[in-house]
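[retry 2/3] DNA-binding protein: previous attempt timed out, resubmitting with same input.
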Amino acid sequence: MDKLIEMVNAWAKERGLDKVDARTQYTKLIEEQGELAKAIMQKNVDGDSGVLDSIGDYQVTLIIYCLIRDIHIAFWKTVINPKDFATETIYMNLVSTSSKIIASYNKGLVTNEIRNIENTFQLLSLVAGKYDTTLEDTLELAYNEIKDRKGRLVNGVFIKEDDFTSTQGYERGFEDGKNHVFELIKNKFDLGRESNEL
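[retry 2/3] DNA-binding protein: success.
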């Protein structure tokens, strides 16, 4: 895992992503969160933009956020059995914990920010476990997909070359991500019922 993180960090530095504002990188995290929600809803596990891709991309985005913030995270194997929880329950906790990262950053609460990043990785590990994979495997998958990717920074966001032809531009990713999260919440959960807490 450490070697993969080093490779992601080197990739990000080559593209100037280590110099962007942390809030800008966080918007990319929201996009990846939405992609994961969409993949879960569509039961797209290993297809293009599937669950496995999305978990890997989520990690890449969060690793770059940590690079920007100069936060070093220790990784561990989760001891919680992911089979004990519904995928949707884990995902909802993931959304909640991820949102606390930027809230802590905005308030200057670095200790809380680090704790929420660690919790986010642990919840991602649980999602991966629901699909019989690991953070390492999905991060390697994501890195192999991006390692030769070309593009440029636009307002602090790395836009891959293929997306320059998009008529809606990079802002589409954030909006799509946000909408997928809300759709999963609306369609998959009875928010009035009791649920197991992680």
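[retry 2/3] DNA-binding protein: The chain has seven helices and two strands.
[retry 2/3] clearing retry counter.
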